Amino acid sequence: MSELLLDAKDLVKHYGSVEALRGASFQAFAGEVVALIGDNGAGKSTLVKCLSGVQQPDSGELRFDGKQVVLDSPTTARRLGIETVYQDLAVAPDLDPAANLFLGRELRKPGLLGRLGVLDKAAMRRRAITEFSQLGVRLQSIDAPIGSLSGGQRQSVAVARSVVWASKLVFMDEPTAALGVVQRERVLDVIKKVRDAGMGVVLISHNMPEVLAVADRIEVLRLGRRVARFSGSDVTVEQLVGAMTGALSQEDAA
Amino acid sequence: MTTRSESTVDIANGDVEPTRRSLWQRVSGSNTVWIALVLVALIVVFSIARPDAFLTLFTAQTLLIEAAVLLVLGVGMTFVIITSGIDLSVGSVLIFAGVMAAKTMEGLSPRSDSTGAGWGVILVGLLVALVSGGAWGLVNGLLIARAKIPPLIVTLGSFGAALGAAQLITDGSDVRTVPKALARTLGSGTSLGVVPNLVILAVLITVVGDLVLRTTRFGRYTYAIGSNEEAARRAGIAVTRHLVTVYLMVGVLAGLAGFMSLAYFRTTTISGHSTDNLNVIAAVVLGGTSLFGGMGSIIGTVIGIFIPAVLTKGFVILHVQAFWQPIAVSAVLVAAVWFDQVRRRARDQS
């Protein structure tokens, strides 16, 4: 049995008078892919933001690795080994893939030059090539601005960046939304690789076949609450849709 | 699109590594090269037309001296525009810093005449210029990065306010005494026989600015913020602090430019810098730095500053009406931005 990594209980988040989360709970284990699904407005993105430190819940309890934590910024989350791939592709289009991979974590030259802030671009490029190749990310050029790459390649770099730096848990908010069939497969392969390496992956997706293909567990969010939990192996699309729309609910899920 | 897929290499199989683009590919993709060619062409044309008048030491010296002050402003402006910001206040801050420095040096001299002042007083004057320039930069930076007011509005405000403050301090008339020691060395002195000191200082600032932008983490963050501020923030970059630092730096450089201008003109030239901001912005953009941020270089700015300067000199030498210069520069500027737009659109569609 894999260990419980992230345990969120009864998270509440208001935006003005709007209640985005009304006591949502969520769990993620090491070495598994857990899908977080729900209809538009169910609170998926808000939940991910609260769990990755982008926003803070108004109330609720958050435990990571058995310890109670407060994620007051993405940096705090990162320090704990939590990385996030954002839906809106948080990459810098004018920088090359290596620069994006190392954004905020630049390697500096040894010695005095490094202390003056001089970057070790060659080392970053070498390491980037190794990391990309291990993840099966195909790029035609390592120093072209990322904006000149295709959407799929851009997405691959964004995914690679989170995976390379994560040590415990990766959130992926709609990582395949903009991708073609081949590229989608590749991202799903990366997700499986990350899981097999013992990390936890939280996949937020609208695509039911994709969820069924890759998720070990599924948690369903509706109107800011968790309404159902399924094991990935014995669930049907009908059950998922039922839980998302409120036709089906589990008493013990919340 | 076919060429793209053909050139794609599969590093998963370990056959081929992703290639670095060839020098030409990297170079020809930027506006900077084309604009450099324009500059070279201009120099060649003017040199052929009047080799006796254009290719002279005197022409080169005056060309460089006139560009020196703009160059110092341009280095800072390049950083600001790469963050996708703008600073309209540089000319006014330059005047304000010059006035503050001149007034301080007069105040420290007997009978408010700083002509005979020594190096102690001059250094205090320099410090005052840098600090008063930096103060405006800090105000700009805080209003832009913290209060989130658009840079165009903030610096339009300080453009007016800094000039007004300079006029209040001087009652609108230029300070006319400047230490001779300063004017003779930094203002009109030369080193190595022929190189104006003013130019040496400007080159020094330019080289340091270029190194900081190209090789350091500070430079990398400047590009990242201009390219996608939200991505930079999520990557853990202290965006607010970085932006404040950039505007502070521009202010300090404008202060230095004010001091240089004071040394060169031997007066505060209150009414002489009203279009410095536009000239500098035009030069930076001409040099291939994108107004949308994320892209640009100091070397481009250097070229962008010399195109109008060379045009002016060339027109004077060829007896073309000098009024043609702004028309020619404006046409090139608009064309440069248009190319930038077209290239971006092509890129974002791929």
Please give a structural write-up:
The complex is a heterodimer of chains A (254) and B (350). Chain A is built from nine helices and ten strands. The mean pLDDT of chain A is 87. Chain A has 254 residues and is of the alpha/beta class. In chain A, helix 6 (151-165) packs parallel to helix 7. Chain A has a six-stranded mixed β-sheet with strand order 6-7-8-3-9-10, sandwiched between helices. A four-stranded antiparallel β-sheet of chain A has the order 2-1-4-5, covered by helices on one side. Chain A has a domain at 4-93 and 167-245: P-loop containing nucleotide triphosphate hydrolases (Rossmann fold, 3-Layer(aba) Sandwich). With 350 residues, chain B is mainly alpha-helical. Chain B has a single domain, classed as Orthogonal Bundle (ABC transporter involved in vitamin B12 uptake, BtuC). Chain B contains 16 helices and two strands. Chain B has helices at residues 2-7, 23-28, 31-49, 51-54, 57-82, 90-107, 119-146, 151-170, 180-187, 197-215, 217-227, 229-234, 239-265, 276-286, 298-317, 324-349, and strands at residues 190-191, 195-196. In chain B, a hairpin with a 3-residue loop joins strand 1 (190-191) and strand 2 (195-196). In chain B, helix 5 crosses helix 14. The model of chain B is unreliable at 1-16 (pLDDT under 50). The A-B interface holds A 54, 74-75, 78, 84, 86, 88, 90-95, 99, 103-106, 108, 116-119, 121, 129, 132-133, 136-145, 147-150 and B 4, 7-12, 14, 17-21, 26, 215-218, 220, 223-224, 226-228, 230-232, 234-237, 293-295, 347-348, 350. Chain A: GO terms for molecular function: ATP binding; ATP hydrolysis activity. Chain A: InterPro entries: AAA+_ATPase (IPR003593), ABC_carbohydrate_import_ATPase (IPR050107), ABC_transporter-like_ATP-bd (IPR003439), P-loop_NTPase (IPR027417). Chain A: Keywords: ATP-binding, Nucleotide-binding. Chain A: Residues 6-248 form the ABC transporter domain. Chain A: This is Sugar ABC transporter ATP-binding protein.
